Amino acid sequence: MTMLTWEQIRRWRKEQRDALIERRMAIAPDDRRRWSEQITNHITQLLASRRPTLLGFYWPFRGEYDARRLVESLHTQGIGLALPVVLRPKTPLEFRVWTPGARLESGVWGIPIPADGEVVSPDVLLVPLVGFDRRSFRLGYGGGFYDRTLAAMPQRATTIGVGFALGALETIHPQQHDIAMDAVVTEQHTTRRE
Questions:
Q1: In the chain, where do the E strands start and end?
Q2: What is the dihedral of CA 166, 169, 172, 174, to 10 degrees?
């Protein structure tokens, strides 16, 4: 097998990322609704065995699974919620407390973020997947924010990568800086990393 250079891998990842986002954006509304319900059921089952105190989640972007109804339900059960905030390129994310109805402002790429709120460290994170491989490594948007965040956490959160099965890849060609998810959830299944 030919070893790829980091530059070749970066170029390959960008091509894969662009193609997978295009496929995700093209999901038919009925399929998206049905698949999202299946994902919600899988996450609910997974969280029953690992009930978080504080759950970090993401605001949906570019056709991602929308966890808002799920997390609003979790909030009524007493689980705290937090959203990520990009402070600047090549730095870890900051998580701020979020509650349903809290005031939001536009963050990087126009993604809503809490306008204010305590900075916290979630014990469980729902992490968006553009793509993923069978070893639970994720292909994100290319900024490295989640890898930097996980590497910087004093107590690493349990990570649940969330995406549609169409994002499955044989490999993402993981590098030393890539951090595998503890579990990957799609509409088809939940895979826990050994």
A1: 54-56, 80-85, 94-97, 104-106, 112-114, 119-120, 124-128, 131-133, 138-139, 158-162, 168-169, 183-185, 190-192
A2: 110
Identify whether the C-beta of residue 177 lies closer than 8 Å to the C-beta of residue 169. no
pTM of the model: 0.94
Q: What is the pLDDT of residues 46-99, one digit of tens each?
A: 999 889 999 999 999 999 999 999 999 999 999 999 999 999 999 999 999 999
Cα separation, 127 vs 167, whole angstroms: 14
3-state SS string over 164-193? CHHHEECCCCCCCCCCCCCEEECCCCEEEC
Residue 7 Cα to chain centre, angstroms = 25
Give the C-alpha separation, 99 to 55, whole Å.
11
Domains and CATH numbers, the chain: 6-192 (3.40.50.10420)
Report the phi/psi class of residue 144: left, alpha or beta, with left for phi > 0 and alpha for psi in -120 to 50.
Answer: left
Rounded CA separation 131/101 (Å): 31
HSE on the CB side for 38, CA within 13 Å?
Answer: 15
User: Are the C-beta atoms of residues 183 and 152 closer than 8 Å to each other?
Assistant: no
Return phi, psi of residue 27, to 5°. Answer: -60, 130
